[in-house]
Specification:
Elements (H helix, E strand, L loop, with lengths): L4 H9 L9 H9 L5 H35 L2 H49 L3 H5 L3 H43 L1 H9 L1 H37 L1 H9 L3 H53 L5 H42 L21 E8 L50 H4 L5 H5 L12 E8 L4 E5 L6 H7 L8 E6 L2 E2 L5 H7 E4 L10 H6 L7 H10 L3 H5 L18 H15 L3 E5 L7 H15 L3 E5 L3 H6 L2 E6 L2 E6 L1 H7 L2 H17 L1
Parallel strand pairs: 3-8, 3-9, 6-7, 7-8
Antiparallel strand pairs: 1-2, 1-4, 4-5, 9-10
Amino acid sequence: MGFHGAGWWSYLSASEEKPRVTWALLRRVFNYSKPYRKELTGMLLAILAGTSLTLVTPLILRTLIDQTIPQKNLQQLVWLALGLLVVPALGGLINVFQRRLNARVGEGVIFDLRVALFARLQRMSLRFFTNTRVGELMSRLNNDVVGAQNAITSTIVGIITNIVQATAVLIVMLRLEWRLTIISVLILPLFILAARQMGSRLRTIARQAMDANAQMNAMMNETLNIGGALLVKLFGRTDLEVERFKNRASTVRDIGINRAVLGTFFFVIIGLLSAVGTALVYGLGGYLVIREVFTIGTIVAFGAYLTSLYSALQGLANSPVEFATSIVSFERVFEVIDLPPEIEQKPDALILQNVRGELEFEQVSFRYDLDTLPLLSQVERHGSLSSVTTALSGTKVETKPVRDAPPADGNGSAQPPALLDRPLPAEAEEESEPRSQARLNALEDISFAVHPGQLLALVGPSGAGKTTLTYLIPRLYDPSSGRIRIDGHDLRDVTLDSLSNQIGMVTQETHLFHDTIRTNLLYAKLDATQAELEAACRSANIHEFISELPERYDTVVGERGYRLSGGEKQRLALARVILKNPAILVLDEATSHLDSESELLIQEALKRIMTGRTSIVIAHRLSTILAADSILVMDRGRIAERGAHQQLLQLGGIYTSLYETQFNRQAEGRA
């Protein structure tokens, strides 16, 4: 007799301490099964029917041995032989029916959970994503959802089946022979002891295997993506990485061998214990047969029931750990579903329509403070990439979650979170070259207004708060204090979708989906016609380039648009915004990494895009600054200076310094 597979594996995957399972959690889990009451009822009936059939075969064998064969009853022999064929056939049909119902319930619940999980994540603020590892989110959507599915389709169903099977078999065995039944049950503690002793060792090896696989997978993720593969080739480290991978793969191999040997040894011990129980039963049973207490057929039937009883009881003995380990996946999924969205929409929110594009900031301050931000708890999940081991060197490090991750500003670099979480020391305040942008508040007391159709340029040192300011306009973040209005309406009073529809934003780091050019453009307007796509691309100076591609608008751009140059990606992003046709345009106009031809094309496209729209531009070019109706000079999260180009130059302040070190050089370079 073999040991119940799901039972012993639960010891391998369980934590040293059993996860806590509360009644509130169980009630919530079972609430998800309410829409599937009919399927659950059918499953229960199928389990009862299937268990009843498993009880029939040993009784048929007893009748064959004790009556049919000794009496040479050919007619009864034929019927019983047919019964031995019909019973497993019916059992197979019942199993198929049960499995279908089981799958419908399990897959249905997982569908509900996965959609609810994804919908909740889509409503979380940008700050949530900057402080949560992508791998952890993917683990919740994949590993934990699959774990929850196992709880529904395997663990819970297995527990019910084992309970029904053990109860039914014990009743029949007691009716057959109570003395043999007692001996059969007394051997069970030996199985539990062996499972716990060997299970602990197998669990340790299984964790080692998961960690080794995680390290190997981490290295593959780092070196086989586009950026990693390029870096390896540029530095000529192919042989080094092959050797590193060889070492990690060999570790996985060696652990796998040890686990296979120990697992086989484990099954040998379980088999020996089964043999002990079987030997005792047949020994005592044979003695009682010789003493004519019962017949040979009875002991044969009893032996058949013995296998079913041991399997069911072992499964039940292990079920607490197995059940708790499976059900905790629901807890991790529920944690995400229960996260309160930082950016909430009022029930009676106004739908923005016919927006003129008037934008006003009124004493707005903002701080990247995570004290009240809902984040995922750090969970120990063996085999997941939890950053406890570095990807290449394999060094063990103590990691902490990032407390702050402000967006890239200016040149694309983000301010270190720690600098924003504490005040500047006095000596840092006194430095003038370069002036430090580290501070407690990302923005402080920002007030300005932009009238419809005007162009506002934001300039200032890297980290001054320019990008953070623009991220407040589409409510990627909400101000810590103050208010922002569009056409007189507080952003908190309008619907999120209507606000998004009125604002077009092009960031410095252009993101394109790994799909066709057409799909990436249609993301702005799902029902756009081919003519509209081409018109938008012509305005962005990218249509001619697309027309020269073999697949034209059906060309796949590659992961993150890697098959396109920086200028081509930016022009596609501009075309996407043109297709959206927003009332307010927010641009990070960085073109420093582009060649002169791409820069000229983008500058021409920008002029067309900004015409007639309220535009807020993080300006990197003198031409944009000169065309602006107003210029805001940002420094350490405040508006240090404001006015037109000539006015700011006369002040002799920060703007003058920027002009002399950056903008004036551009003009000289063009001369």
